[in-house]
Amino acid sequence: MAGREPLKMSIDLSVLNHLGLNLYSNVAAVLSEAVANAWDADASEVRIVLDSAKDTIEITDNGSGMAYPEINAKYLAVGYSKRLAEGDITPGGRAIMGRKGIGKLSLFSIADQVTLHTTGGGETTGFRMTSQGIQKAIASGKDYLPAVVDAREHAGKKGTHIVLNSLKKHRLSQSATALKKRLARRFSVIGTEKFRAYINTDEVTVYDRDDLRLLQFLWEIGKAGQYGKAECPSLERRDYFDGLAAPEKGWVIEGWVGAVAKPKQLESKDGGNLNSIVVLSRGRLIQENILDRMNDGRIYTKYLTGQIQADFLDISSKDDIATSDRQRIVEDDERYQVLEAYVRKCLNSIANQWTDWRNELGADEAQRENPVLTDWLSTLSEGAKRHAKKLLGQIQALPIDREEDRKLLFRHGILAFERLSLRQDIDKLPEAIERGAEKLLELFAQVDDIEATLYHDIAKGRIEVIRAFKGLVDANEKEKVLQKYLFEHLWLLDASWERAAGSEVIESRLQKEFERIDTGLSKEEREGRVDIKYRTTAGKHIIIELKRADRVMDPADLQKQGRKYKNALEKILKAVGRDREPVELIFVVGMPVVDGDNVEYVEKTLGAINGRVIQYDQLIERAIQAYNEYIVASEKVNRIEAITSRL
Hints:
Elements: H1 15-21, H2 27-40, E1 45-51, E2 56-61, H3 68-75, H4 82-86, E3 111-120, E4 123-130, H5 131-140, E5 147-148, E6 159-167, H6 176-186, E7 196-199, E8 202-204, E9 215-221, E10 237-241, E11 244-246, E12 251-252, E13 254-260, E14 277-281, E15 284-287, E16 304-309, H7 334-369, H8 372-378, H9 382-397, H10 403-422, H11 428-434, H12 437-446, H13 449-453, H14 455-470, H15 475-485, H16 504-519, H17 523-527, E17 529-537, E18 540-547, H18 555-575, E19 583-589, H19 599-607, E20 611-615, H20 616-633, H21 635-644
Parallel strand pairs: 1-7, 9-10, 14-16, 18-19, 19-20
Antiparallel strand pairs: 1-2, 2-6, 3-4, 3-6, 4-5, 7-8, 9-13, 11-12, 13-16, 14-15, 17-18
Helix pairs in contact: 2-6, 7-9, 9-10, 9-11, 11-12, 14-20, 16-18, 18-19
């Protein structure tokens, strides 16, 4: 409308606080901006000197520098985009890294004073800026005017020289070595003939990344043969991906992903976490770790590191998808989604290869360290051997500090493998190991229980217990020991009764019935009994009555008592719909029953209630014989024992 001021947008200096003064949190990110500026100035080298005595950082490049007018028009113009104003390529033919025009403000994230000398167009200009001065200008709403300083010392010197004073110590904890590692991972152009960078007097090279030299496996992307033994001295296997992320658009990826032998190798006190895959564009970091975005919890990811370059992420004619501090990317952009999809596809392939390669190498290493494992493998069929090597490789790959613990895992692994092979469940074991030690131990506990997995050890241990019984001469002592162990260890009665499973509900109700029956017993009958218990095992219900060692029992009396117990149990079973299940009664006695010589009579009398009688000594002798026969007959178990005992 006539007479009114036109509408206009104004930018307050306070926006500088958000754009750069407080945007960066670490010195590596700040110095990366200075290195990128040197690259864009067509410098062949940039030198960074950390001087703790002077409390300064100096950054010097031999680039094109700036004439006085350019300082105002370009450097001091916050938001000046060199790409838009001057084109996508430098006069020296380089793809320009800078884009937002705010990188120079990052220097104030680590220093309160910045002094700059630059030579361009035949003249040298020097000026100084302070964060305090900028803050005052912001508060007053005026333009900030840097102080001009004497530049004669730098006259005629090519490029730009920056001195940072009044350093913010809390952000400068990283050593020169750490900075070298971080800069090496933030640029792919550093260390080439065209562009060199130095921290103090040491050049930053590809070797400073500290990741390539650690690699056991390497997957190159887009370009094969980039790295050899010089860069990757520990390399065992390598493969290649084509890098064609979206060929119809011309979007390609180059770089590599690698895996180390042990996750601990990626722990770096100086250079940050190496368990990451950095993304670069135009030779410079644009995302610190795309691996985090994969949400892949499989164990192989803990071994990965890498560096990939996707220049299509930073196309000048398209929107800028890098965040202000250039640490992350706007993730809903099509370019990033293409990148993520391609990386995810590569990682899925890597996961399978990593497992196979680790198993192959791990099995070989395990056999070198434990030759007895070779002996075990030689006893297996070719089909089983393939699975067994996979198992050994995965145990070898587990991050275990004590080798004795690893040997114990080998021993349990062999026993579990043999057990699972009988059940044709071999695949379950390697799958469990791939998911980590916790899942492995869980499976060991599930393979017919640890007791079944280590049956040979159990057999030997039980024989020792039984022999301890046998050593007891006094019948009353045997009675006491049997009372303590018999009801919870039914294998003493029958070696096939490995795990007694009690039914708490039935047992509780039956106990009340037993109490009623007991009230009808004579004093002599009650005193003749040590204890009575109910158990379920081997698909049947069992009532066990332990008689006193000094009592002589009559089979007819046993039948009479047993029938009462059996009727009580059958009544309860019928009430819960289990009346068709078998019930057995066992009387354990210290003395032979009356008519003990007439075996047929005893068996017939007790058979009427599906009962039987066994003497203490018979019980012990039969148990010893059963377990001795098992050990002698089980050649396979003896073979495994001979092998595992040598670990």
